[in-house]
Specification:
Largest sheet: 6 strands, mixed
Order of helices and strands: HEEEHEEEEHHEH
Structural class: alpha/beta
Main location: nucleus
Shape: globular
Oligomer: single chain
Protein name: DDE Tnp4 domain-containing protein
Pfam family, one: DDE_Tnp_4
Family: Belongs to the HARBI1 family.
Number of strands: 8
InterPro entries: HARBI1-like, HARBI1_dom
């Protein structure tokens, strides 16, 4: 995997340099599995499996992990994925920290996520909305702007594949296979028929749906001092050398 090519795309398209992908998770509604009790019963009151995905700036899925039970209903589900296992084992072979345009300061390469995830040295999330100053609001805007690619990817997936329009009436393992196959087909169609595939009315879709429901936000993890300092460093950069003109 060419991490630096992914980071270059995020920099050129969204001016969020050193970004390796936008992370998000969704609940996918399924029928109640046999003899499962409340294991797959999520915080919104229906049965689901969780799809975790990392998307690049082209709205392609770089990595997916699907099948965790819906009861694991917050950002903690990340810790049960193969992605997190590889990250913890330092087996993702992330690039060494590097400079950003117009500065000689060194910044780590990071993944970006929303409030559902825990802040980390290589995982940036927004500042809490209730306590933001103007500089932090600028950081949040820049992160949200880049992170929109994964929301767009999910939106396209939901619209283009009818399986996401209703409960998937299979056991969790088969439902997970169907979801994973849809993600692979999504990537294939973007690569081979991008213009035709992406030309869709999905952007104006407004109906409420249980399909691809957001994960429940979490705020019960204390980030490290280093993680906070890295976020503050990006925040300072976006308000100074890296400010949008």
């Amino acid at each position: 995997m060419e991490w630096k090519m992914i980071a270059r795309d995020f920099g050129e398209k969204y001016q969020f340099w050193n970004c390796l992908g936008a992370l998000d998770g969704k609940h996918v509604a399924i029928q109640k599995p046999r003899l499962s009790g409340s294991l797959y019963y999520n915080y919104k009151g229906y049965f689901s499996i969780v799809l975790m995905a990392l998307a690049n700036a082209r709205k392609e899925f770089i990595m997916i992990d699907v099948g965790a039970n819906g009861r694991v209903s917050d950002g903690g589900v990340l810790f049960y994925t193969k992605f997190w296992e590889l990250y913890q084992q330092r087996s993702l072979f992330l690039p060494q920290p590097g400079t950003l345009p117009s500065t000689s300061d060194i910044f780590p390469f990071v993944f970006i996520g929303d409030e559902a995830f825990a802040l980390g040295e290589n995982l940036m999330k927004p500042y809490p909305q209730y306590a933001c100053n103007n500089e932090q609001k600028t950081f949040n805007y820049r992160l949200s702007r880049a992170r929109s690619v994964v929301e767009c990817a999910f939106g396209i997936l939901r619209t283009k594949f009818g399986v996401f329009q209703k409960n998937i009436n299979f056991e969790p393992s088969k439902a997970a296979l169907i979801v994973a196959t849809s993600c692979y087909l999504h990537n294939y169609l973007i690569k081979t028929s991008r213009k035709q595939y992406l030309t869709s009315s999905w952007k104006v879709e407004t109906q409420s749906s249980e399909q691809l429901l957001d994960l429940e936000p979490t705020n019960n993890r204390n980030p490290s001092r280093d993680a906070k300092m890295i976020r503050q460093k990006f925040c300072h950069y976006f308000n100074n050398e890296g400010k949008l003109l």
